[in-house]
Task: inverse folding
């Protein structure tokens, strides 16, 4: 008895085809890999910097006090030096969420714009591939690298942090429920958002640069959240992450329905230019 | 048996009908030409048959499957060569084909054999590892033709298949189309190359938003111009006022024309130099009578042949007639709503 393949073969074919093209495009490779590499490098630099914090600090005053005041309430029980280290590392909770946004949006926008530029959509849509299979294949091709890049970045950061910071900082910051929930739940939801937005944007623009420029706007709310976190205006905790996740789920569902409608064969051939 | 049937097929974009009320029946193994000026609706018709866009009116069937109800079954049975090759330029020729083989659900071994077979047939096997981007226009065109054939479709739609090709490659593709036809496949050929359509197509349809005329190239010419047989005479005197030719005897071309007119079944007769152009309804029956009459009266015949007009002339006449019709009744095409619209 023959086994059914795990994934629809046409979806797999689309994913493989996307990746085969992706690895041959230096611009896309660079714009895809640069943000996670930069963020990981920044995170490692900050980790290194945190080793210079004087372990004997008992009470915090001056500019350091302002920095620590922005921490999540759960971290305020840490000692003076550890609370500074925690304050230095905490922004990466938000910064790492940039990766699942930026990577998929770059790939997804290239995916559709590339088809438009090579005028390959007509031949592609004349095959028995169903619209949902094409859409799923393209989405997976963009989402998988996005999620993997986010998780690998976090993993590298966590391994490096384990070697550098104290157990209390490691458990209360890097492995805290807030961080784990963010990386395991919020990051995939951000990826879905980025894929949908990437597909939507690229259906309306003619070239990859325009798609990327428009797509980069999606990180603005995260920049706002980062500023809020650093200044203490936003307390990033499990509750906030859950509320954000529910909100993202609703937005993702809406965008998914909208994107499927946009990707009707008719629309692609008669309205996409 | 018909491979393709279109009944009252039409497609509206906004207020404008790109194609309207098109009726076609294309037989299995037929090479069918779709001719028309730019914007006549050839591509829209082709796209509706290929299930790329849905009809706004009427219906179409491919190999017995309705394009609106069973689009996936139709797609399995169609191979399409689009106007632009639409290849993935960063991938090799082989990778391009392997991707499409997977989309058509071909098993790996069969796909590899098909790829080799068609690449060899079209002279591209040695270039299979080259990226599509570095291939010449003609090679890209041939590669996209291979792509359309991998799954052995019974119906093939070719949009300007030789437009980017040099004469040698164009001939190769035309010969290849003959091979496909001999395998019993139905081919729809959209082209502006009327000589090509005349030589390749069993029948042609001339469309301009709606069907103007359909038939064999010869039928179109006969419908427009009737049938005429040309008799070239070597020994008749020229018409009145012209100098006699060497060896000419006492009979003139005008005498012969009058003689031919009296033959039963003959229509108008015209003299053009040393040739008589004789209109007749049934050349197979009437031509021997005319030959006999001419020979009996001393005419020496060098050549007797039915006049063939190029398809181009019939095409241009039909299209210009349609333009005159449209100019006199503009509302019949533009902005006209049809009561039995079908949802897309």
Result:
């Amino acid at each position: 008895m023959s086994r059914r393949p795990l994934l629809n073969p046409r979806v797999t074919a689309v994913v493989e085809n996307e990746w085969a093209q992706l690895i041959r495009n230096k611009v896309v490779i660079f714009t895809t890999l640069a943000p996670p590499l930069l963020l990981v490098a920044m995170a490692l630099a900050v980790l290194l910097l945190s080793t210079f914090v004087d372990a004997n600090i008992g009470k915090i005053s001056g500019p350091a006090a302002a920095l620590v005041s922005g921490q999540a309430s759960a971290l305020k029980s840490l000692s003076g030096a550890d609370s500074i280290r925690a304050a230095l590392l905490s922004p990466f909770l938000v910064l790492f969420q940039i990766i699942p946004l930026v990577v998929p949006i770059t790939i997804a926008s290239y995916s559709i714009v590339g088809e438009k530029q090579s005028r390959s959509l007509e031949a592609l849509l004349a095959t028995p591939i169903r619209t949902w299979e094409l859409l799923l294949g393209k989405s997976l091709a963009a989402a998988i690298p996005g999620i993997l890049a986010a998780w690998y970045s976090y993993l590298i950061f966590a391994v490096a942090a384990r070697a550098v910071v104290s157990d209390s900082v490691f458990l209360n910051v890097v492995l805290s429920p807030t961080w784990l929930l963010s990386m395991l739940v919020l990051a995939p939801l951000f990826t879905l958002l980025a894929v949908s937005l990437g597909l939507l944007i690229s259906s309306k623009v003619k070239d990859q640069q325009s798609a990327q420029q428009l797509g980069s706007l999606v990180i603005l709310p995260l920049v706002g959240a980062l500023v809020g976190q650093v200044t203490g205006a936003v307390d990033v905790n499990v509750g906030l992450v859950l509320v954000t996740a529910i909100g993202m789920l609703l937005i993702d569902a809406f965008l998914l329905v909208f994107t499927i409608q946009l990707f009707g064969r008719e629309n692609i051939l008669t309205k996409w230019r | 048996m018909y491979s393709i049937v279109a009944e009252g097929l039409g497609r509206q974009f906004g207020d404008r009908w790109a194609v309207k009320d098109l009726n076609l029946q294309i037989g299995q193994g037929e090479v069918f030409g779709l001719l028309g000026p730019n914007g006549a609706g050839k591509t829209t018709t082709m796209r509706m048959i290929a299930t790329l866009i849905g009809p706004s009116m009427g219906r179409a069937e491919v190999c017995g499957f309705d394009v609106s109800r069973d689009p996936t079954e139709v797609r399995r049975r169609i191979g399409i060569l689009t106007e632009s090759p639409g290849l993935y330029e960063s991938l090799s020729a082989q990778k391009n084909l392997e991707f499409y083989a997977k989309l058509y659900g071909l098993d790996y071994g069969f796909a590899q054999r098909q790829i080799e077979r068609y690449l060899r047939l079209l002279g591209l096997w040695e270039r299979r590892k080259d990226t599509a981007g570095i291939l010449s226009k003609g090679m890209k065109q041939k590669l996209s033709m291979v792509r359309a054939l991998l799954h052995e479709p019974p119906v093939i739609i070719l949009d300007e298949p030789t437009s980017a090709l040099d004469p040698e490659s164009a001939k190769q593709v035309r010969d290849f189309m003959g091979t496909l036809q001999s395998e019993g496949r139905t081919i729809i050929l959209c082209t502006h190359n009327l000589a090509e359509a005349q030589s390749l197509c069993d029948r042609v349809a001339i469309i301009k938003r709606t069907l103007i005329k359909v038939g064999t190239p010869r039928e179109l010419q006969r419908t427009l111009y009737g049938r005429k047989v040309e008799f070239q005479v070597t020994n008749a005197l020229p018409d009145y006022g012209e100098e006699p030719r060497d060896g000419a005897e006492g009979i003139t071309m005008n005498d012969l024309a009058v003689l031919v007119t009296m033959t039963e079944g003959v229509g108008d007769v015209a003299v053009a130099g040393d040739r008589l152009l004789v209109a007749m309804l049934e050349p197979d029956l009437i031509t021997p009578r005319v030959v006999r009459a001419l020979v009996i009266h001393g005419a020496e015949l060098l050549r007797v042949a039915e006049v063939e007009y190029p398809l181009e002339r019939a095409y241009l006449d039909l299209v210009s007639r349609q333009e005159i019709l449209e100019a006199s009744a503009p509302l019949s095409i533009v902005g006209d709503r049809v009561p039995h619209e079908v949802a897309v």
